[in-house]
Fold this protein.
Amino acid sequence: MSPEAYNAFCASLPATSHVVQWGGADVWKVGGKVFAIGRQQEDGEMAVSFKCSPMGFDILSEQPGLRPAPYLASRGMKWIQWLTGESMPDDALCDYLAESHRLAAAGLTKRVRAELGL
């Protein structure tokens, strides 16, 4: 997935905001909660981290080209980092990014979700 495709997909999700932080990573949030972190690697490929369910984390962390997200997973959070399309093509990654967005939005208060139209 290219940086442009990653950013375009995340921007297409409802009520999102984008910031560049943590050493140049493209960070996407919904209601102030992070749901995706993407960084272009030295080889030009993207490394994309996203939130997932506990079962999704267990399954995905065993797949080639995916791993528990550095820093986040080590703190008990269920985040996966996608490194290559080897086991997950771009369209599947987009499905997981949409689910990560949904999980982050579900953690917002009812009032904030209503304000954001979610």
